[in-house]
């Protein structure tokens, strides 16, 4: 009788880990409890899966730690977009002020 973990090509089926299992795997590698190879064996996944989980966890942690205080839930892209929109509005206001000043200056020349 064939093993339940085998598919027709002879490879093992891909094992999906829950978010809590991924976190546990990441912490065990991060703390040195397991090497990447040992973690892959322990959770019965491919070593590339361990590498991907560790890379994703590190990136997520860096993004969370780089978030500005007082702005929870905003991604770095959202913060950057808001800053760009604010700068565009400041530039629009500056151009409008300069246009008014130029109009007033040119208007005075007509009366001189």
Task: List the main descriptive attributes of the protein structure presented here.
112 residues; mainly alpha; 67% helix
Describe this structure in words.
By secondary structure, this protein is an all-alpha fold. The chain folds into two domains: 15-67; 75-112. Helices cover 67% and strands 0% of the residues. The protein has four helices and no strands. The chain has helices at residues 19-30, 36-42, 47-66, 76-111. Helix 1 crosses helix 3 and helix 2 (36-42) packs across helix 3. It is rod-shaped. The chain starts with 18 loop residues before the first helix and ends with a helix. Residues 1-9 have low confidence and may be disordered.
User: From the alpha-carbon coordinates, what is the Rg to the nearest angstrom?
Assistant: 29 Å
Low-confidence stretches: 1-9
Helix segment count? 4
Assembly type of the shown chains?
single chain
**Overall average residue pLDDT:** 82
Question: Which range best describes the helical content: under 10%, 10-25%, 25-40%, 40-55%, 55-70% or over 70%?
Answer: 55-70%
Distance between the termini: 104 Å
Number of domains as seen in the coordinates? 2
User: What's the shape?
Assistant: rod-shaped
Task: Give the class from helix and strand content and strand pairing.
Answer: mainly alpha
Order of helices and strands: HHHH
Query: How much beta, percentage-wise?
Result: under 5%
Count of beta strands: 0
Largest sheet: none
